[in-house]
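hey
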């Protein structure tokens, strides 16, 4: 079961302050050492370096930037011809529990990455 709240479906990410749409890129992260700073202590709810042991990890970034706006971990199951979403999370700046959200539309984009 995935427990997720989708704020908006947008063609790109939407700057929550200005309403401007910003283009995005998807990056596959293969180095576990890069993911060490993405953990529960820093607001990412789980240890993403550990998830990389059995999952493919993809990051959503604003085009031309390396600031990660969300992460999704997927586990391909070749026998079932399926892809399972193991975990997904917006950056702490985009968490709907935050009073000062940076970008809207991250959750929908994370599902699109998995698809």
């Amino acid at each position: 079961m995935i427990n997720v709240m989708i704020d908006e479906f947008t063609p790109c990410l939407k700057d929550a302050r200005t309403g401007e749409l910003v283009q995005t890129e998807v990056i596959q992260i293969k180095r576990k050492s890069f993911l060490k700073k993405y953990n529960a202590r820093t607001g990412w709810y789980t240890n993403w370096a550990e998830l990389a042991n059995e999952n493919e990890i993809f990051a959503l970034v604003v085009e031309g930037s390396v600031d990660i706006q969300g992460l999704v971990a997927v586990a391909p199951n070749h026998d079932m011809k399926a892809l399972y979403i193991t975990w997904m999370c917006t950056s702490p700046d985009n968490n709907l529990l935050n009073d000062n959200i940076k970008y809207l539309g991250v959750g929908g984009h994370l599902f699109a990455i998995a698809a």
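The chain has a mean pLDDT of 91. The longest strand covers residues 68-77.
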